[in-house]
Design goal:
By secondary structure, this protein is an alpha+beta fold. The chain folds into two domains: about 120 residues, Glucose Permease (Domain IIA), CATH 2.70.70.10; about 120 residues, no CATH class. It is built from five helices and eleven strands. α1 crosses α2 and α3 packs antiparallel against α4. The radius of gyration is 22 Å and the shape is globular.
């Protein structure tokens, strides 16, 4: 399956699906995702979502998106479905719908009211996900934006500019790792718990200096998608920069969590650690 990168682009920022009462309150899970046992019958069953303690609270859009469905089912009760890029989120057992089918929504906009509790299930490009993983991503994005005093992440590089990285052939291996670890990586960078290697910082400085010397910046009108105004000549620079940033993410995984790309042999692992002079966590 062709999966997108970790981050869900959202011009309106990000929001959790319901507000908590005060800083000390945490979202209480009644029933998690996955294999469960019925406490009354002892029967095994698979729970395809997460149930939260959420008694008649406003339910919110988590990002910029679209209301794509609503209805009633025996198991899920009344529900409303929202789509954010390739992610689709269904809020179930609701008591009231406040946004109609086809409505465009922004992060934090009320779309419904919960009933006695809230069931959420999530898919990505049609494939079922553990909603906790999705909400951890959303929470990581919120935390990162707050740390950077920003409303939303800049959009991706202009798709008309050809960008090739050193890791394109590892895309299928990289994307699940990014989905799981990228929020923590950015948070650790922001808080100073992780500092990119001198090799990473030096390479990025050199790339920027050479790009400036060759006049690659501001060949086109700058925009959110292309803040440096890179023209077609700048595709190579963008690819090299992305390669450096991806490699730093891999350095973080190796040094902090002892994780590598699954297909890497011992020589490739050693090459990474030598190049960045890192100690690997066992």
């Amino acid at each position: 399956m062709d999966k997108q990168m970790m981050f869900l682009e959202s011009p309106s920022g990000y929001m959790l699906p319901f507000l908590l009462d005060g800083e000390d309150e945490t979202a209480e899970i009644m029933l998690p995702y996955g294999e469960q046992i019925n406490p009354r019958t002892g029967a095994h069953f698979f729970h395809h979502g997460v149930d939260f303690v959420c008694d008649h609270r406003p339910l919110l859009a988590v990002a910029s998106g679209l209301v794509v469905g609503a209805g009633t089912e025996e198991e899920r009760g009344d529900f409303i479905v929202t789509r954010y890029g390739k992610y689709q989120v269904r809020y179930c057992h609701i008591s009231e719908v406040t946004m109609g089918y086809g409505s465009r929504v922004e992060a934090g906009q009320q779309i419904a009211v919960s009933g006695d509790f809230l069931h959420i299930d999530v898919t990505f490009d049609g494939e079922e996900l553990n909603p906790e993983d999705f909400l951890k991503m959303i929470f990581g994005n919120i935390s990162q934006l707050m740390a950077l005093d920003m409303d939303h992440f800049p959009e991706s590089v202009d798709p008309d500019i050809p960008v090739v990285t050193d890791y394109d052939s590892y895309r299928e291996e990289l994307e699940p790792l990014m989905q799981q670890w990228m929020p923590r990586y950015f948070m650790d960078v922001t808080t100073g718990r992780y500092k990119p290697s001198e090799n990473t910082e030096g390479t990025l400085r050199l790339l920027m200096e050479k790009a400036a010397e060759r006049g690659y910046f501001y060949q086109d009108m700058p925009s959110l998608a292309n803040p440096l105004g890179l023209g077609s000549d700048g595709g190579d620079v963008a690819g090299r920069v992305q390669s450096v940033l991806i490699e730093d993410f891999l350095v973080y995984l190796a040094s902090r969590h002892g994780i590598y790309l699954p297909s890497w042999d011992e020589e490739k692992k050693k090459r990474l650690t030598r190049r960045h002079r890192i100690q690997v966590r066992s």
